[in-house]
Structures are given as structure tokens and as C-alpha cells.
Amino acid sequence: MLEVDGINAFYSDFHVLHDASLKVNKGELVAVAGANGHGKSTLLKAICGLTPIKSGGIRFNGSDIAGLKAPQLVGQGLVYVAEDRRLFPDMTVLENLQLGAYLPAARAAEKHNLDRVFSLYPRLAERRNQLCRSLSGGEAQMVALGRGLMSDPTLLAIDEPSLGLAPNLTKTMLQTVSQLNKDGLTVLIVEQSLALLKGMIDRVYSIEEGVLRETDTDNMQEVL
Amino acid sequence: MTQILEILISGITQGAVYCVVAVGLSLVYGASRILNFAHGSLYSLGGFLAWYLVAGGPGLPLWLVVLLVLPVLALTGIGIERAIIRPLRGSDNWKINTIMVTLGLAFIIENGLQLVFGPGTRTIAPFVEGSLSVGGITITWYKLSIFVISLALVGALEFFLSSTRYGQAVRAVSQDMQGANQVGINVNQIFGLTFALSVVLTGIAGILLAPVFLVSPLGGWVPFLKAFVIVVLGGLGSTKGAFVAAFILAVLEAFVIFYIGPSWAMPAWLLMLIIVLMIRPKGLFGVWEN
Q1: Cβ–Cβ of A70/B175 closer than 8 Å?
Q2: How far apart are CA A33 and CA A139, in angstroms?
Q3: pTM to 2 decimals?
């Protein structure tokens, strides 16, 4: 479904990603693990068209998407959920979710997806008219994931959902992601700590100083 | 008492038109963090276009002129964003650069107007004559009409921002640009849209005020300065703030003009601005974070 082939990305002059290659098959939950500052987020942002790449190829559902910007990719079903949430603080929970379904394709499924998000997170239904500025970290992460689902993704790229969350909240969040995956959503997730993802993922890559390597899921702990 | 009421009414009616100019400036700033220094010149442009079509050449009725000028103003806004703003965004010093180019654009528009229409002032006859008297208070029908039209314009903008898809997208872009990208909003398109709306608003205000304040090539600087003070007082980028600040300052202006003199109006505004900013540095409704 997603094939990343030897991409290179820079953060101003700094060479972040070195010939990074990775593959995600339909229905898989694939993780990228690595310490902070090794290029995990840049990798995800580069795939999702939020950061430019210098060279290399990216194919999504068989078509070349290298160089396309996020708004075009969202329409194709490749949706990014940011580590820092990136919610619209002065809008309500409902408005944030509705904006997830901004593009025509997602709008067609808006009602269905909204019901799905609200049944996944009844708490968001209760707080639908609350401004996102006033949400707790856990609730904000729910809205971030919910907004991603509203875009009607075929592949959801989730950037370090545990960031700033208490361990128990992270656990619930990852269980939700795992459930979504079992229901048929393809997921590419980036995390610092793989311990919590154990038993949920199909394949794992480790990233170190911008170099990506596929690793055995059993040896995951060793990697870290 | 009647006198005070009359001054108050004069201030409120004036406030509505200031509001139209100011929310236009604020809308663009809110979405793109760009301060459009040509906003006042575009106000003059609206006035001149209308004057030409009404009194200068074709002699068309004002309502038809407004309908004709609207798309011209909207396209002007889109053109400005496309031609001079977009190439600069993302450059290192885009904040200063966009100020410089919009300032340059202001000079080009002013000199263009001077070249075509000459340096003199023009006026458009009000579209309604006569006045309304209630309980000793008199107000011209014209002032009353532009008050209603202005409120309708600002109301329509508020409705657009709060209740439509594109309006939501404008607010989304102003609150988190990367977040907007992530959900599929074409940020360039939204910038174009805000410029179009902004130029329409200021241009229409220029037409509405032509019978009262006259139109001249350099006549846009006073409305620009006033809109700027209103926007800063209300809180940069907040249309609600601009709305409230426009009325506060217009009423203040009406009283200062009556009791002290017209030349004290602007100093009074700036004094007010200084006081408010000392207490609330973000302005009345400011929320900026970056």
C-alpha cells in the first residue's frame, strides 16, 4: 500500500533522513521506533507531504506521491495525526472533528465517521461544544485521532501518540489504535517506547540517526 | 440630553462603517499574519471605481455599480495575494517583506488613481435624501442606510466565518496552519479568499463613505490608520475585537469632535490605544500566540 524508497530529507542544512526505505502492506500495523531526534517525525511528515524530500520515491496505492502536499494526500486517504495534536484551539470539539471531513470525499462519509468517533470516545460526544483550548491532554489526543478518522483514511500515520500523555492514557490510546487496525485500518505509527505496542504490531523498523532498518518484532527490546 | 444622544447615534452609525474597513484588515491578518498596508488605498480604489461609473462616465445607478464593482474588488484581492504575497511567503523575512510590498502597492494604487483621475477630490451623491426626526433627534436617511448596510456586511461575514465550511477553514488556518494542512485545507486558496473578502469590504466602505468623506487618491490613509488602531485595540486578528473596538472608538471620536474639536479625534484614539495596551497588551480580544 505504501512504499518508501530511499528518501532523503533535510531540516534546514541538517541531513535528517538517509536513504530511508519502508513498506506498509494493506491491513498492517507497522511501527517505527527510535529515540528522540533521530528523524521519526520527519519520516512521517515527509511521507504525508508536510515536509519536503530531497530525493527518493514514495508510492501510495500504486501511484507516485513524492512531492505532493498534504492536502492532496489527505484526499487520497493518507492522513497524518500529529504528535503535538495541532488542534484548532478556539474551535469546539465538534468543529475540529467536522474539519477533519473538510474534503468532499470525507464529507460524504461525515455522518458515519462522526458516529464512529463518538462511539469510540463517548467523552468527546459529551464535550462536543467545548473549546479545544480547554481540553486535557488525553482529551486533546482523542480529538486529534478522531479528527484523523474523520478524514476517512485508508492509511493513518500516527506520530508518537504517547507524547505528553500519562502511561495509562497512552495504553488506552494504543489499544484503540490496535482495535482500529483490527477493524481494517492500515496504520503506520511512530513511537519512542515499543513496550506498550507489544503484541499489536505486525512489523517494526528501528531508526537511528536517520537510518531506517527493519527489525524482528521479537528483538524489539534489544533495539531500544 | 438630546445632544448627547445625537452624538452617541452619530458615533454608532460611524462605528459600523469603520467596522467594515477594520474587519477586512483583521481578517487577512488573522489568517495570514500579513498586515496589508494597501488596505486604505484599496478603499480609495473602491470609491474611485464607483465615482467613475456613477458620475464620471457611464452614469449608472449606484446599486448596479456596487454589483459591478464587487467582482472587480474580489479579483483584485485574489490577484494581490497571488502576485505579490504568495511568492514572498515562506521567505526568511516574510513579515517585513510583505509589509514593504503592500506599502509599495499602496503607492502604486495611489499614483495610478492620481494619473487616471487627477489629484482632486470627488464625491458621489447619496442614494437617499432627507432625514428622519424622532423626539428632537435628527439623522439623515443616508447615514441610517449605510449603518444598516454596514451591519449587514459585518453580520454576513460573521455568519460566513462561524457557519460555513470555508469560514471554518479560514478560522482553522488562522489558528493552526499545519493542522489546516493536515485535514486537507488548501492554505493558499484560503489566503486568496481572505484577500478577496478583505478588498471587497474595504472597497464597499470606500463607496459607502464617498458621499460623506469624499474620495481622493491619498484619502485612504486616514481610514487605514483608523482601521489599524481599531484592529490593534480589538486584538490583532480578532474580528469580534475589531467589531467592538470600532464602536468604542467611533463613539469616543464623536464626543471628542463635538466637545474638543476634530483635530483631537486621532490623538484621543491613540491615547485610548496606549491605555488599553498598557493594561491588555494583546488588545481587547487578542489571542495571538506566535
Answers
A1: no
A2: 24
A3: 0.91
